[in-house]
From TrEMBL:
The keyword Transferase applies. InterPro entries: Aminotrans_V_dom (IPR000192), PyrdxlP-dep_Trfase (IPR015424), PyrdxlP-dep_Trfase_major (IPR015421), PyrdxlP-dep_Trfase_small (IPR015422). It comes from the Bacteria. Pfam families: Aminotran_5. Residues 55-370 form the Aminotransferase class V domain. Keywords: Aminotransferase, Transferase. Coiled coil: none annotated. GO terms for molecular function: transaminase activity. It comes from Paenibacillus baekrokdamisoli. This is Aminotransferase. Gene3D superfamilies: Aspartate Aminotransferase, domain 1 (3.90.1150.10), Type I PLP-dependent aspartate aminotransferase-like (Major domain) (3.40.640.10).
Amino acid sequence: MNAQTNMNALVNKKSFIGLENCTWLYSGAEAPLHQGCQDAINEYISFRGKGPDGRKRNAEVEQSCKENVARLLQGKPSDIAFVSNTSEAMSMIAHSLDFKEGDNVVIHTLEFPSGILPWLQLKNNGLKVRVVQHRDWEISIEDIMDQVDERTKLVVTSHVSYLTGARLDYKELYSELKKTETLLLLDATQSLGAVPVNMNDADFVVCSSYKWLLSTHGLGVIAVNPRRVADFAPRAVGWRSVTDMFSPTRFENFSFHEDARRFELGFPSYPTVYATNFSAGFLLEQGIERIEQHILSLGSRLIEQLTDLGFEVMTPAAPHNRAGNISVASDRGEQIAEMLRVHNIYVWGGDGRFRVSVHLFNDTEDLDKLVDTLKGFK
């Protein structure tokens, strides 16, 4: 790629709150809010004062939000559940699986803590946790499958690593796992909204609302592929999980919803639902393939610039092996992020690297500001 080629943002930066005052390369941690999200939250506040009409509107927006998220995931609204965050989603799934002593799950060393901690807790119940080591900051499908046997209940992986920015070919992995009884739990928090994700190529997909989906904190998505887990029953239950909360036999028994609603215990964060309904619709209007092409092109330019400066880029150079996160190995990662913040350039630093995240509102001017500032730290 020609490093001199200029790429404009896909959208007007002025439509995002606060971007006029900074260079935001921070979407892997959290994204800036579009003005439309603020308008959506204000709509919630307005309807909050309308009593029953407000509840009716909440239900309409929630359904619309599920439809938009389902479109992003290439699934159906009935397969989408809303919880509070990805960690809750992971734990609900973990504690609902019927583990027997000696069963195992497979995780890897590029996984975020929310995808690790529930399984470590279950080790006390006799669950074995198998950890696949990365090779040159990437995880091999072959290495994962080498750890899968007849006692493997689940493979847990992120689509895109929070640590390195490497993108895993989960479709290839799922193709192999479907030959076994092992399920796939895919965390799309670092990919949904930036690159295509298909929930039909995993058994469970989870995601947070406030990163690449461009929404606020407060919503976790659980997408349930019914092909292999149609009868999967959560261990937690609430009034929204069941078919009839006022059943005549409600003091004796209950029945879960047959669709993904069985994961929903109570009302979601409706301000977040309103915001996510807007932001998911906004992303769909822009086109995920178009967004992907933009961030991959920016990423190629950035990797070239960082390499020329002598930085050790952890993220794969090949576009199909990455998404919006570009990570640089550095034991000064946190310090570099803080020094950049002083210049109103936002990146994430720590855990042995600093991470630059590019989204649809970023352009080559953002990258050039970052690189010019980094020259002073070398």
